[in-house]
Amino acid sequence: MEVAAAEKLALEKGFSNVSHLDVSTMELLDEVRAMCSANTCGQYGKNWACPPACGELEECRARISRFREGILVQTVGDIEDSLDFEAMMEIEAEHKAHFMEAAEELRKEFPELLAIGAGCCTICAKCAYPDGPCRFPDKRVSSLEAYGIVVSELCKKNNLAYYYGADKIAYTSCFLLK
Ligand code: SF4
Q1: Ligand 1 pocket check for 141: Cβ under 6 Å
Q2: Residue pLDDT, tens place only, 2-15
Q3: Distance, CA of 124 to CA of 134 (rounded, Å)
Q4: Which of 43, 71, 42, 84 minimizes the C-alpha distance to 169?
Q5: Which pTM was predicted?
Q6: Angstrom distance (rounded) from CA 110 to CA 35
Q7: Beta bridge partner(s), residue 73
Q8: How do strand 17-22 and strand 69-78 relate by DSSP bridges?
Q9: Contacts of 108 (CB under 8 A, 6+ apart)
């Protein structure tokens, strides 16, 4: 399967927007990792796919260095205002459902697929970390932020909008294809 066909498949899965991703634009920054350790999202040290369990940035760099291209996938939805958490959670859940479905399909064509998502891994209702090993190490999904990536910058460098106005929210993830 060519990358263009992967883009088409992603659109068919229900994402609002899909764009080609040049892996050389993925800049992994210590500053973003520092935000993870500030634990504003409450997931630091609670999930195998989040820091520190997901590995140092050098390990993340080594993982993505095997790829040259991929696709960015995005779900854009309506919110009433910046406090409309209910709508945000619904849109995030929709994005993740489409993301996992697309990952399953794409993995058949790209066996080394690396899926990097939005938010922490939610495959299990409760992550096994730290008491037991990850239940699905081949499927678990780390976030772009866990990779030290500024999502707005990544979108900009790959010709994808990130901000759609005060009454919209966008969730962005990517698939690296090989
Ligand atoms: S697959 Fe399950 S155990 Fe593994 S990181 Fe995700 S939620 Fe945690």
Answers
A1: no
A2: 989 999 999 999 99
A3: 10
A4: 84
A5: 0.94
A6: 32
A7: 18, 173
A8: antiparallel
A9: none
